[in-house]
Amino acid sequence: MNVIVNVILAVQMLAALAMIGLILIQHGKGADMGAAFGSGSSGSLFGASGSANFLSRTAAVLAAVFFVSTLALAYFGNARPASSGSVLETPAAAVPAGGPASEVPAAPAAPASGAAQIPTK
After folding, report:
1. How many structural domains compose the chain?
2. Tens digit of each residue's pLDDT (9 = 90 or more) over 47-72
3. pTM
4. Is 116 among the domain residues?
5. Of 45, 54, 62, 72, which sits with the fewest C-beta atoms within 10 Å of its C-beta?
6. 54 within domain boundaries
7. Domain that residue 61 falls in
């Protein structure tokens, strides 16, 4: 089960990094306006509007992969095995006699109340 969680975590991290890169590469809505008036090169690797479609669709797919991997990690993080080996979850009665429970000293007596500790004349 740890292998599955590690693979899902790796997929999530790669999708997050790729999504960050794709979002930073994209141009804003106002970037095309400058190219329309001749102040920049409007040509690109994918054509005038092809890059926006390709990059936005790829970012959307990566966002979906990130979302699904997050849900899968939440599911596997919440799933617990039937018998956990946690010391904190085992009841005190389950400790065998003569084991660590018999070596624990008795608790000290409770201190006196606050009113009894105030000095008087």
Report:
1. 1
2. 555 566 888 899 999 999 999 999 99
3. 0.53
4. no
5. 45
6. yes
7. 2-29+46-78
